[in-house]
Amino acid sequence: MDRLLFLLAAGLARGAVLALFALSLVIVWRAARVVNFAQAAMAAAAVYAAFHATAATGSYWIGLATGLAAGALLGAAVERGLMRRLPAHAPLPGIIVAIGLVMVLQAGLAIAFGPEHRPMHPPFSQRPFVIGGVPLLSPYDLFTLGAAAAVMAALALLFNRTPLGLRLRAAAFAPETARLAGVRVPRMVALGWALSAAAAALAALLLVPTELGLNPHAVDLLFVNAFAVAVIGGLDSPAGALLAGIGTGLLVSLVTGYASASAAPLAVLALMTLVLLVRPGGLLAAKEARTA
Amino acid sequence: MTPSPPRLAVSGLEVAFGGLTALDGVSFDVRPGETVALIGPNGAGKTTAFNAICGLVKPRKGTVHIDGRPAPARTTRLLAAGVARTLQGLGLFDRLTVLDNVRAPLIALRDRDADAKARTVLDDLGLTGLADRPAGALPYPERKRVALARALAPRPRLLLLDEPAGGLGPADIDALAETVDRLDCAVLLVEHHVDFVMRTADRIVVLDFGRVIATGTPDEVRDDPAVEAAYLGVEAAA
Ligand SMILES: Nc1ncnc2c1ncn2[C@@H]1O[C@H](COP(=O)(O)OP(=O)(O)O)[C@@H](O)[C@H]1O
Ligand SMILES: [Mg+2]
């Protein structure tokens, strides 16, 4: 029972990071109809920016802000410099360019900073609070949960409750109509990429201190799991990403705790297969938009 | 005294898609307050004319003026120039609510009263009860009305309607004709429904194979042999 509580608590923190990264994939998908396979490499680059800002100033928070800004800038730059130039309405070029970008970014990071793992220190202790003899969440876990939840809530408000959000959604759902309605669609798409890449950078920034450390591939596994989460949730659905993220986080934690860490990827794969068999569009997939 | 310029002046418009000439020297005007119908067989170039006016396709030759000024090259600036349009295929934001669909152009124009203005238009078109429903979930006639509401929301000086009566039943067409009659902005519409055109249009421009083959009042156009020939698919007698 104690063990179960501990694993559930750990799964919650892991799930929040997964949900945030999956949400970042959902945001680009909605803005540009591409699965951004370069999201992990872009996030790793942003974390390097954070790492060096922290090293230079000694402040975790300056590093965090630098990482988010670097993520947003990189997202906008990738959209403006690469994705915008691709033919519309064909999914393949976007995927190929994203994969090419992964190779360039990861090789570039390895050349610039070396392939070794650089430890990153969390701003709060990772020693769990012990409640009733059960070690539960650590202060850093709470920070992770709080930061992920706050950013997801802010993004939900931005998209659903603000005029800018309406323009972002209009541009994503029906670009031509949006243009006729006066929405500067390319600007909205670039902004979508920036928001998405910043969210992914935050997820990576929260994750890396709990793992081996920073290297060009430090975010790869997070991407793989988050991609599964986004697909489970419905790829198009922010709420689906949240739900599937928490669910998958709990699942991974339980499987790791009761079976073994190497069984976790299989469990995620099994969950994804199961969900897709029952609901091929994902848990919260929208009905296919009419195109009459 | 110089007369005020027409609301919309299309002059010598030529549009080609590869080897296909979709518009071949098309000229016509729409004056303030006037409703002009653009008619012609399928493929005549009506939608293309709309697209050229909106900057969605680039004409090879010719000009489009709005209130005497060149139409903005950018589609997104068109609304600010007072021109709104519906699309032949509805073009609603299916997943946004009816209210958000209608607010979108107002918000793009940075209108402070977006909410109030949108609700007024919904009221006018009898859509108030549907404001919070996703547009894609509504029956076709209601979606058609949402598309019209969205075009009307920014109070355009020129309204372009592409087949507004298409797919509607007699009762809805009647209501639509009443709405169009009530509008005080200039209207350019493309429509196949003959009664609707006869009832709403002050003037008709007939296109065939990308050329204007007749212009006139509904009565004049109805009696024009070239128009009849075009609609029957017969070569118009030279
Ligand atoms: N984007 C396009 N690319 C190629 N051909 C087009 C395109 N749009 C229209 N056309 C062609 O131009 C001609 C006029 O089309 P359109 O303006 O849609 O006619 P209408 O609206 O009068 O039925 C047709 O032959 C059509 O096939
Ligand atoms: Mg047409």
TrEMBL record, chain A:
Its main location: membrane. It comes from the Bacteria. It is a multi-pass membrane protein. The chain crosses the membrane at residues 6-27, 34-53, 59-78, 90-113, 142-159, 188-208, 214-235, 242-260, 266-286. One of its GO terms (biological process) is amino acid transport. One of its GO terms (molecular function) is transmembrane transporter activity. GO terms for cellular component: plasma membrane. CDD domains: TM_PBP1_LivH_like. Keywords: Amino-acid transport, Cell membrane, Membrane, Transmembrane, Transmembrane helix, Transport. It is found in: Cell membrane. The keyword Endoplasmic reticulum does not apply. Belongs to the binding-protein-dependent transport system permease family. LivHM subfamily. This is Amino acid/amide ABC transporter membrane protein 1 (HAAT family). It comes from Glycomyces artemisiae. The lineage of its organism: Bacteria, Bacillati, Actinomycetota, Actinomycetes, Glycomycetales.
UniProtKB/TrEMBL annotation, chain B:
One of its GO terms (molecular function) is ATP binding. It holds the Pfam family ABC_tran. Keywords: ATP-binding, Nucleotide-binding, Transport. Gene3D superfamilies: P-loop containing nucleotide triphosphate hydrolases. One of its GO terms (cellular component) is plasma membrane. InterPro entries: AAA+_ATPase, ABC_AA/LPS_Transport, ABC_transporter-like_ATP-bd, BCA_ABC_TP_C, P-loop_NTPase. It comes from the Bacteria. Residues 8-234 form the ABC transporter domain. This is Amino acid/amide ABC transporter ATP-binding protein 1 (HAAT family). It comes from Glycomyces artemisiae.
